[in-house]
Every structure is written in C-alpha cells, then in structure tokens.
Specification:
This protein is of the alpha/beta class and 384 residues long. It is 46% helix and 11% strand. β6 and β7 (157-162) form a beta hairpin.
C-alpha cells in the first residue's frame, strides 16, 4: 500500500427534508450567492425549499450555469460576487453547478492576471470564497471533493483544477431531488460514477484489498440499482443508493494508497470539448477502449473485476477479460447510452484530432503516464 494523507472536512447531510437545514449550515450573517443552472430547480421545487430555508439571509442569485460549465459564464458570476459583496457561495444543482462554484470561489480571490491560469497553468489557489452545496444530480462526486472541471468556448478546452480551498463546507444530499431527472441524466450520472471507480481501480495489482473490495461494492451497487432508477424513478431507496455511490466514487476515499489511471477522463474531456458529448457518454465510449487496448497491462485487475463484479469464473484468461469488457459495455448500453463514436455522430477524424490535442499539450496519460499520441488514437479507433 502506498503512503497517503487524507483530509476531507465536508459535512454531508443526507436524506429527506435535508434542505430545510440550510439555515443551520450557512454561516450566520453571511450574504450568500445562490448559483444554479437552467431553471430545473424551480420546476422541481428545490429552489423554493432553498429560499424558504434561507429566510433571514440576504440572498443574491446567479443562474445560467451550463452542463460542462463555461469559463465565460463563471467569470460573469465572479463579477456578481464582487458587485453584491457576497461572501458565501451556495451551489444548488448537479456536478456542473458545483464545479462552476468551485472555480468562481477560486477566481473571486485570485491575485494573478487571468483566472484561467488556475486551469491552464495550475496556478496555485491561495484562497477561495467559502461554499456549500445542495446536490440534485448524483454523478461527479464534486459535493465531497476538491476538484473542478471547466470548459472554455474560445479555445475549445475542458480542463481540471483542484484545491482544498474549494472543498464544500457542507453538501446536502436529498434523494427526492433526483426524482424528476430526465432518464439521460440519470444514465450519464450512473456511468460517470462507475467510471470514477474504475479510474481508481482498473490499473495493476496492488496490496490494498480493503479499497479494492470497497470499489467492487460500488461497482456492484451501481450495476444493480442503475437500471432500477430508469424504470422506477421515484423509488427512494434506489435513488439514495445511487446518490451515495456517486459521492463515494469520487470523495478521494477509493484512491488512497493505490495507483490511479484517469486516461478515460482525459480523452473523454477532449470529446466533450470538441463535440459537446455529455461527460458520462464520453466515458461510456472511451472506457471499454482503454481496457481493451491495455488488457495485458491491466490483466490482473481485469481478471479480479471479472470474478468479483460480474461473477465470471469460466474460460481462460483472455476469454474472461473479453467477457468482462463486453458486460461493462452492455451495462452502459442498457442504460440507453451508445458506446461507439458513430452512435453520437463523432467523425473518424476525432481519433487523430483528440490524440494530437493531448500531445500538443505534452500530456502523457494512464497509470504509467506513458500513453501518448499513438496510443490515444489507437484507443479511439477501437470505438469506431
């Protein structure tokens, strides 16, 4: 097991009726900026619950955060923070709103010339506006981690940053807020959580049986519960299990002491930046390709995954690995998500274009940090 440090101060408030606790969680005397997306929280009643709970606070609002939140929109929110003298950010929405709030929080306190440097140059985040969250779409794990991914229209880039300064002080998780999610968002969320686990698990043999089995538990739960959410969307227990899986998939817990990959995310971000593919969908396309391309190097973990997650015990090593990859691909498809580039009208030239974009930034990916332009193109060609 590798050395690690773990720090996670985010308070999780989970369950029905939890939004009413906002008044206890937002610091007394704070002037919060409520940040949200396109208005779904007004249709499903979450907005009204939040505003009622914040009675007595001077609340400002900023709406219009996009899926795959844009730098340009976030910078408008930074201006709003300054104009209204807001000293607390409250993200109400899914992972995109949370990611946007994290960047807004960092950019509002950034002393450099251009806050984009936080993403493009990994400029250090020395301070950030404090924030909390009300989660309405389980997927990214952003409610309990220090990471954020932001897109920029002017350069067609989608980049990541992380800082302990932008960890939410609290996150409210009420499964009932997810009842009204469109099926595509539910499916993408399940896949996003599934691949988050895979990026921290599907590498090479390691001496960390505890986190291996914890990861396998999340895999199996998502496989069992994901399809149920599509057929019975107001089943509280199903929604609760998926919500908690998504949080545990990326609250850093599963990465402690183990090697991690993130190749599928790096490639998937490029597909999203170039073609507007939903994040979860991009991962459903790429992940089986990474496993197929790297099947020899990931052999031990693929065989373990086949046995423990899919109960595959018959056949030789190659047959069991192929079956595990096929079952994973079929699981993504069973949620209604196409897993091939052509399913989403992504052209063949995307294989070389994505590979070149990563290479031009000097990026080498994978758990060995040695997959470059040639390998990325080969992975994507497996998904034509």
């Amino acid at each position: 097991m590798r050395n690690f440090e773990y720090y996670n101060p985010t308070r999780i408030v989970f369950g029905r009726g939890s939004i009413a606790k906002l008044a206890e969680l937002v610091p007394a005397g704070a002037k919060p900026l409520l940040v949200y997306g396109g208005g779904s929280i007004k249709r499903n009643g979450v907005y009204d619950q939040a505003i009622a709970a914040l009675n007595g606070f001077e609340v400002a609002e900023f709406s219009g955060i996009e899926p795959n939140p844009r730098f340009e929109t976030c910078m408008k929110a930074v201006e709003r923070v300054a104009a209204d003298a807001c000293d607390f950010l409250l993200a109400v929405g899914g992972g995109s709103v949370l990611d946007a709030c994290k960047f807004i929080a960092a950019a509002a306190k950034y002393d450099g010339d251009d806050p984009w440097e936080i993403l493009s140059k990994w400029a250090p985040v020395e301070a950030a506006t404090p924030l909390g969250a009300v989660l309405t779409l389980p997927a990214t794990g952003s409610e309990m981690n220090a990471g954020s991914v932001i897109s920029r229209d002017s350069t067609n880039e989608k980049l990541f940053f992380g800082s302990d300064h932008v960890r939410p002080q609290f996150s409210i998780l009420d499964p009932e807020t997810t009842y009204s999610l469109p099926p595509i968002q539910t499916a993408n969320g399940v896949i996003d959580a599934f691949v988050h686990v895979a990026e921290q698990y599907m590498t090479y043999a390691d001496a960390n049986p505890l986190h291996n089995r914890q990861a396998e538990a999340v895999f199996r739960t998502l496989i069992e519960e994901g399809p149920k959410a599509l057929t019975d969307p107001e089943n509280y227990d199903v929604r609760a299990n998926i919500m908690w899986c998504a949080t545990n998939a990326l609250n850093d817990w599963l990465s402690l002491g183990v090697p991690t990959d993130w190749a599928s995310h790096m490639i998937g971000h490029e597909l999203t930046a170039l073609y507007g593919t939903d994040h979860g969908t991009s991962l459903a396309i790429v992940e089986p390709g990474v496993w197929e391309h790297q099947r020899e190097r990931k052999k031990d973990k693929l065989l373990q995954y086949a046995a423990r997650v899919w109960d595959i015990h018959e056949g030789n090593d190659d047959e069991r690995i192929s079956m595990a990859i096929e079952k994973t691909d079929s699981f993504f498809q069973s949620l209604g998500i196409g897993t091939r580039l052509e399913d989403h009208n992504i052209p063949d030239e995307a294989c070389d274009l994505v590979a070149k974009r990563l290479a031009d930034r000097g990026v080498k990916i994978g758990e060995h940090s040695d997959l470059g332009e040639t390998e990325v193109a080969e992975i994507l060609r497996l998904r034509l």
